[in-house]
Amino acid sequence: MLYFVIVWILLLSINYLIGVALLNTCQISCFTRDGDRLILSLWLGIIILSIALLTVSLVFPLSPLAGAILAGSLCLLSLLSKRTRMELRALRSRLSKKIILGLLALAIAIASLTTRQVTWHDTGYYHYQVVQWLEKFGTVPGVALLFPNFGFTSSWFAFAAPLNAEIFDSRVSAVTNGFILLIATLQFLICLTQCLKREAYLSDWFMTSCSLMLLPVVLLVNPLASILISPSPDIPIIFLVEVTAWSILGLSADKKSLPLASARAIRPEVFPLLLSAGAVTVKLIALPVLLVSSLFFVFGKKFRTRQIFVAGVVITLLIAPMLISGVITSGCPMYPSSLFCLDLPWSPTLEKVEHISKATHSVINWASPSPPGIHPWLWSLWHWFNSSIQKQIMALLILFSIFPTIYLTKRIKIEQYYEQLWVILIAVSGILFITLESPFFRFALSYLVLLPALGIAVYFQNNFEATFNILIERLSSHFPFKDAHKLLPIICLALIASTITSYTNSTGLSQLLLPPPIQRIPYVKKEVNDITYFSPVQNASCWAIQLPCTIEVLSNVKLRNSAEGIAGGFVRSRN
User: Fold this and answer.
1) At which of 286, 314, 330 does a domain end?
2) Mean pLDDT of the 394-417 span
């Protein structure tokens, strides 16, 4: 548990510094409130650091030393900005003991929830193995030949690699998703505070509504409750979709009070573009967000041909490492999609790639052949709807989203180009994309809550704010809220002490520093074409078996360079 807290404090500092330096470099004159600026800086820092680590993995292994050097270099580069140094000094002056204690209590409470044994099956299937390949060898050519899922590229795995050194004995793979939960909870508390202070923008109401729907599901409802305790990219994607929509709404919130921007300032619409492009490098299900954010950047204010060029440059710079990594591991830049696949010595056959793509995304292949006279899509959708209660909830949420859409379109004047319209477009395009490509509950959730959350936010902003203010004033007359801050340090210390005590009593002192390791499974040692590998005995999951681990190496797969061993990659014999 303490390892998680220590790492999170370091990551908060590193990512905030990188993100705020980017804000100052762009000379953006919006997101001026401290809370908004903090959260946006943290998310931007995560994206930049993740993509930078993925870029480094193309050349070097992502060892803890490599990660520390990269993070330190980015921090030193960020400190070259005078405005960044001034902002850091201003932040330090505002960090009171109460705030520090509160943040520490929050981190310890979340660490106590997330430092459990990892049980999510995809972690054993390929997540942890991919992280270990990156940590030990970097991006390895043809690793998809060993096992198809090893070709799945994600900057989130690169972000996790330096934090999962062999010395930790496969105990800390959930540290990154716990960090995301910490940031998401912190953003919820910041936005909720703005609502309670009666200073809320529409973006605050929106994020508060999203958080009230998402956080309980992520914490309590499977499979997301299990996915949270893993290195899966599903968790950051859920919140990145919401944060991108929040950033679009935040732009409209500050318009009336913006200071005059520098002539060299970059348009603030670039930040939803940065967030969405970063989300795509985490997982391809964020493609609808990137499409809408690109249109928002190009058309959101005033159409100029130059904006198309700028958007193209930004997107290319951010997603190029992911595309290159995909080509190196599988020959396909958007693997498991077969689009733009290259016929390279380490590429799986096109038939194999298409098989993996269909098995992962095609809804029609999930059902048995349809009876005569019934359309395959209708049969598949009916089969999908009846397969689980989660699918039925998804269908109901999709139907429920129709009502907020009607309500919002009636209240929003299209000719005024309100940012809410772009959030509606993200939700609609995302729901359609997930329905057609991969209608899993964990993929669709982030899109399904957008319209209800936006509808609630608009309704509260326009109708209930006065009532809410009266309610707070009446409560304030009965409860001494103005003196409650004096009890905050005591409450935080009590929370920290009780959390550590309960955690120690339930798990023992040995796990107070680190969570339990992921499960160990029996394996056998095999050899094919001078490739010595380890194969699980009971099922297809490798979990923490040493590299290389796979079910079976095909007879036409061999080492790319015998002198380099498995670090040099693998190729496919064409005989």
Assistant:
1) 330
2) 64
